[in-house]
Specification:
By secondary structure, this protein is of the alpha+beta class. The protein has three helices and six strands, in the order βββααβββα. The chain is globular, with a radius of gyration of 13 Å.
Amino acid sequence: MNNNLRIIRAEAVLPGVLTLSWNDGYDGIVDLRGKIADGELFEPLRNVDEFKRVRLVGRGQYIFCGDEDDDVDFGCSRLREIAEEQVALRARAR
């Protein structure tokens, strides 16, 4: 993945689902519901209001959800991989 890749927009559209835009023009939907469904670490993200508070940090290198005290973030490159994997999965399902 390109080291210059950055997320420029992040919005929670459903509980556990984000729309993201990257600085290379790629727009994607990332469904994190399966990833955050279990575990104490992700408990704050299962709260709809906390998940909606998604924001960019590190100049778009990460997204962060929840309170400042929470340490749950997702990296730009991994989110891009997830978005592309989910697009490919939907294409194969057709």
